[in-house]
Known about the structure:
4 copies of one chain form a homotetramer. With about 350 residues, chain A is of the alpha/beta class. Chain A has 2 domains: about 15-130, NAD(P)-binding Rossmann-like Domain (Rossmann fold, 3-Layer(aba) Sandwich); about 135-290 and about 330-360, Dihydrodipicolinate Reductase, domain 2 (2-Layer Sandwich). The first copy, chain A, contains 12 helices and 16 strands. The first copy, chain A, has a 7-stranded mixed sheet. A 6-stranded parallel sheet of chain A has the order 4-3-2-5-6-7, with helices on both faces. In chain A, helix 1 packs across helix 10 (about 295-315) and helix 8 packs across helix 11 (about 330-350). Chain A is globular. The model of chain A has no long low-confidence stretch (mean pLDDT about 95). At the A-B interface, strand 1, helix 1, helix 2, strand 4 and helix 6 of A face strand 1, helix 1, helix 2, strand 4 and helix 6 of B. Strand 4 of chain A pairs antiparallel with strand 1 of chain B, so a sheet runs across the interface.
Amino acid sequence: MAYIQQHSAELPTPVRLGLIGSGWMGAFHGESIARRVPGAVLAAVADPNVDSAASVAAQLGTAKVTADAADILADPDIDAVIIASPARFHASLIAQAAAAGKHVFCEKPGAQSLEELDAALAAVETAGVHFQIGFNRRYAEDFQSAKKDLAAGIAGQPQLLRSLTRDPGTGSIPQAARVPAWTIFLETLIHDFDTLNWFNEGAEPVEVYAVADALVEPSLREQGFLDTAVVTIRYSNGAVAVAEANFSALYGYDIRGEVFGSKGMVQAGRATETAARRYTAEGLSADTPRLNVELFRQAYTDELADFAGAVRARRDGVPPSSGDFTITPGAADARRALAMALACIESVKRGAPVAVNETAAV
Amino acid sequence: MAYIQQHSAELPTPVRLGLIGSGWMGAFHGESIARRVPGAVLAAVADPNVDSAASVAAQLGTAKVTADAADILADPDIDAVIIASPARFHASLIAQAAAAGKHVFCEKPGAQSLEELDAALAAVETAGVHFQIGFNRRYAEDFQSAKKDLAAGIAGQPQLLRSLTRDPGTGSIPQAARVPAWTIFLETLIHDFDTLNWFNEGAEPVEVYAVADALVEPSLREQGFLDTAVVTIRYSNGAVAVAEANFSALYGYDIRGEVFGSKGMVQAGRATETAARRYTAEGLSADTPRLNVELFRQAYTDELADFAGAVRARRDGVPPSSGDFTITPGAADARRALAMALACIESVKRGAPVAVNETAAV
Amino acid sequence: MAYIQQHSAELPTPVRLGLIGSGWMGAFHGESIARRVPGAVLAAVADPNVDSAASVAAQLGTAKVTADAADILADPDIDAVIIASPARFHASLIAQAAAAGKHVFCEKPGAQSLEELDAALAAVETAGVHFQIGFNRRYAEDFQSAKKDLAAGIAGQPQLLRSLTRDPGTGSIPQAARVPAWTIFLETLIHDFDTLNWFNEGAEPVEVYAVADALVEPSLREQGFLDTAVVTIRYSNGAVAVAEANFSALYGYDIRGEVFGSKGMVQAGRATETAARRYTAEGLSADTPRLNVELFRQAYTDELADFAGAVRARRDGVPPSSGDFTITPGAADARRALAMALACIESVKRGAPVAVNETAAV
Amino acid sequence: MAYIQQHSAELPTPVRLGLIGSGWMGAFHGESIARRVPGAVLAAVADPNVDSAASVAAQLGTAKVTADAADILADPDIDAVIIASPARFHASLIAQAAAAGKHVFCEKPGAQSLEELDAALAAVETAGVHFQIGFNRRYAEDFQSAKKDLAAGIAGQPQLLRSLTRDPGTGSIPQAARVPAWTIFLETLIHDFDTLNWFNEGAEPVEVYAVADALVEPSLREQGFLDTAVVTIRYSNGAVAVAEANFSALYGYDIRGEVFGSKGMVQAGRATETAARRYTAEGLSADTPRLNVELFRQAYTDELADFAGAVRARRDGVPPSSGDFTITPGAADARRALAMALACIESVKRGAPVAVNETAAV
């Protein structure tokens, strides 16, 4: 052999991540880490359903499997955790992970009440660990393009904003009914609230008025499962935003954002799956995006790459590179969006506008 | 520690690839392999400019570096090679790699003459190795969507086809002039020829008529460097295709394909970088795609993932999964497109149509 | 001369229309009638500003001019009137015209209160004349296409609707401030309300919640002039709609409608002035629609052609042809939209949702 | 009655036009004049099929009908003629009309040979009458927008151009076969040639290479009826253009133009009938334009309004207003495009490129 150099190449030591929760979304995050995030290793998977954890680990070449997240938190070889368990466990897992000195990426929502969230975020602050919340839309290329334009002042002062989520669902709303009643606010519209807050950066949400109903599956109305909602939000800078969501968009996964302001408008949102177009005797047609993990595949990868990069920077003492505008959603973002979701629930109950700080006060 | 399982996870052994040529495109392929192709390892880099090879290897964590591609070919730890050297070396490298029992991914063109290419492909066939040519557009999601529709008969019998390449260039055409005179046919339009052949699968290109000129940089006309070309192609099924290229598209990297037939039309090509849109006092605006490695980033990854998958399937004796339609561009595709490019050069010289088999005969 | 036939061709006698109000919109309606509506004649123009009326008449070849609309109402040669005076005169002019046996086309709003409107519509009913309100968007080709799809059930049961008006304004909001404070609801959003009612045909608006502010020209807030508004509307079929408006869209005249339902979504609204596109070093760009009389030029013509056709059908005893879906906006449409606008005003005053029938009761 | 003014309004005397040829296109032009061109009157209709002429006249309220175009030419009350007879009569009708002192609007082509055309245009020049050829695409709003951008230098120096015609046809190509064999060049692509010439104003077409075949209806190949053609055109400024046509576009009427140059690209062409969009379980869909008289309805009106305006300006001694760029297609445009069509026919016969001036020399 005549290689001029033949040695261990000196790449940075990979970041070692532990996955907590190996359900549908957890498994996808695991796959992103193992296969698509350079410099990150999926080191362990925890799930009370240990067969699920083992299955994910086997597919991804992950060496360690446990039923108990505490094993991951106690493992000195693991730098950080990805929390993808059911939402009701998020807050305590954040707090435990922080106490164990692990950096934390947590799927939204950060908690189901502000009290819980505040306790968790206090633990994060005390431990000095890095915290990122799973608002993945910030990493979608079209939303980033819009944000960049907004940061550059293209739209001027925001006056009207819109964000929407139309979810194709599983075709099985009754199944969905087993999830908590307020899912549409706590787990779906919370994404839209974050998009609006990010697009309207610098302003605070002041008041919300929410309308919600069970239009897809009216039989679930009595059980409190709502599948359609519209929210009007007043911001401290006068801007008025509308967020809307529906759980049964037959045409696919439709996520859009729009900001109208004193100088113009920017829009994000992808109407079709690819740029390909068909023209037949029936006219123009094109495929529409379906699963969120297809539409946002790259965004899901990029949010984890951002997290891995931040963890590495902390570990290696290198400041992470900062861009032209804020991307990484952190503690304040998690809290602001949750406060809005909770105010919406109260607004639906009252049938009246609700001040965000009424429910958000600590 | 209380992990339920703690063991070496049983992932398939990665495919080990050697990169030959670490110029701009080679370095990008190396990065794709090292960072974005699951199950592949960039095991070695060869370049006569060994500093370039070392630099690429260092960035990508590749252990082996050499000035001589023969080192890679002789290395039993390497399964396959990626040939990204200048085009004039392609044919002999293909032949040598095949003779060394390495599977071969080669950037286009496979050779600069049909004689050379036929010799190289004969070596591939004799050795029984897998061969893939770098027609990356087949892996772009919109071109795949169009191909899928064509395979499903959406457009009916093809009658009119179009493929175009508008390259933003480097802003430095005189530099480009140092590349061979017929680059526009041999290295650029060869992509379009393959797209047309793939879209019109089952038909053979019969005759070409090519017009070419130095319109971007007229001063280079005498040196024979042509920057603008239009080609008309007659196919055996009667379809007529047009391919066009230009080396200085100020608005970005514009790659489109279109097939019109007895039942309709399909189009591929991405007009804007993302789905984001701006509306200002100047009207609507959006960013356009720029570098090919941005526009086709995923396509470049996917062509290498396809190659790695095929190499692994050969190694492990598992047949690669086959899809609804042909994707992987192989020996016959490399030859067909090269024959067209050579016929175009002859057509420009004669100022007349030229039968493809006139230059393609062996 | 050797003409085979040479005679007075037997075209139907034109419909003779009198224009009441020759301001900007009145003059445009006059021009549409005189130049673009076959079978209609602009027979007279009335305006207290008789110079304005005379100027319009002179440009359009109209023979009769008066300062007093009563002259037109008393003229037996006139079949019908177009009311384009300031809104505060609409109701009494409708009533007078009906009493004089003239068919009536009235610009929106039909009145400024429901009491006035009901009196006017009672006069219409008593007189048995034809009544059309100026909801021109129903005649825009894209809104008609959407309506046709909705009537065919493409979107299924409506669940979420949206209509918006972004008006480029005159660049002179202070001037706008001389119009009544609630213009944004009574004269602008009333269009959106009608679009939503038409798209959600068969359902009744039940409750509105309106937010409005002076964001374009905050100094006018105290004078009550509002330039930005968002309205949430609950319909009797459970659908939730959002209407929004703003008086200073720098990028042009942006009118959109969207209906999302159990089977899909339909959208109307034209993003660019023409299908032409530019690609330059700055990316993609295109011109956006500007004046409403440009964007809706054909729609304005077609609404008057519809009116003229209905008048002719009444006169000649021929039933007007009916299409696949309802187009002509009549008395009930005028009332429904006005009731919503009035409920919005009340909602802004109260800062709370308001039942439409609370203000709409007669 | 108390009208302040009651008098004959002083509108300009209308232009009185005679229609020669009342077939499908002639009847449509007649309707445009009678109903959509302000200031023009359809004064007479001539057609050897006098029943056809009488039927058109009756529908449009035209008083005079004749089997003999000479009656119109001899009528002192008629200012100008619209020639919409079969193409083989165009040249002699132009000459006769000019000799009779009538201004002439003639559908394309101006003639079927350059000799005939030159004779006809000489008569026009001798008589000093106004001449316009029916290249209606110049009046389409998107083509005008593109032309305006080109005139402003947006695309820089043209390098690559494209124009295409995809005609949905009548679904009855055998019927079409009764029209002359070279229709695709003389009556269809002649539109594209004019578009290219107009977009590349200042340059002359130098050489064409045409490929044509009977792909839609191969059985008609022997009779010489060609339904598919592609033409490459070299211009005096080095630009290379491609024109293509097909007579059976199942998806509708598809007319596009594109100019790529040293600074950018402009595109014209309307992909969908309206801006409305549908999203269903099948994805995105929209209607496509169908009949040319729908797609170009306003363009057909505007070309006749331009003609009527020019006739009025001549009559009244007022110079017609001139715009930012050339619109009205005249004698030179008619000749240039015809010369290209004839050179294409020769190119198909020879299977080789043909210099335009080879067939165009007088």
